[in-house]
Amino acid sequence: MTDPIDLPELPFPLRPYGPDANWSYDKGALTGWAGARQDLFVPPSGEALDPVSDAPRLLGAPEGDFQLIARVTVGFGAAFDAGVLYLHVGEREWAKLCLELSPDKPTICTVVTRGYSDDANSFVVEGDSAWLRISRTGKAFAFHASTDGERWTFVRIFALGDEAKAGAALVGFMAQSPVGEGCVVTFDRIEYRPSWPEGLRDGS
């Protein structure tokens, strides 16, 4: 394990997991690289017993209710390249909120893994950037996305793990390039709020 990385926007340190992404932080922007064929996905068909590979993550452990917000910009090069806000509660218990080329248009996508992964597309985005938000209260998590960082579209709410696992969840940033030769992902406008959103479906 390498030394933790402190971002001024976050009240907890981050540590890298998985392959080396050459994470760097400068002037409010966090940048990382996914290598060729790096992903984190367990096919629900059962055709693979383990994730296809691994993907670089930068994660920390917030306390209590929270919202983690960031604008993600992806250097798309191949289908399913993505920048991700990532949530981890245990072995084969994790979730991804992605801006992903899926397969030929930038799309807000989600994956929740409970032994095996599900996969769902939400809405198409114009361009290579979008705002993503993960929130937690108790053992409940919510995903939202936005095209402007002001009005938020509800994507999904779910529970993952028991209350103890959910309360100790690791959250943060991930880059992936499942079928491509790699891509660069940048997160900026990073924000942390020690609260659950006032309304899940009212755009706030």
UniProtKB/TrEMBL annotation:
- State the coiled-coil residue ranges: none
Q: What InterPro entries has UniProt attached to this entry?
A: ConA-like_dom_sf, DUF1349
Name the Gene3D superfamilies for this protein. Answer: 2.60.120.200
- Give the top-rank taxon of the lineage listed in the UniProt record for this protein: Bacteria
Q: What is this protein called?
A: DUF1349 domain-containing protein
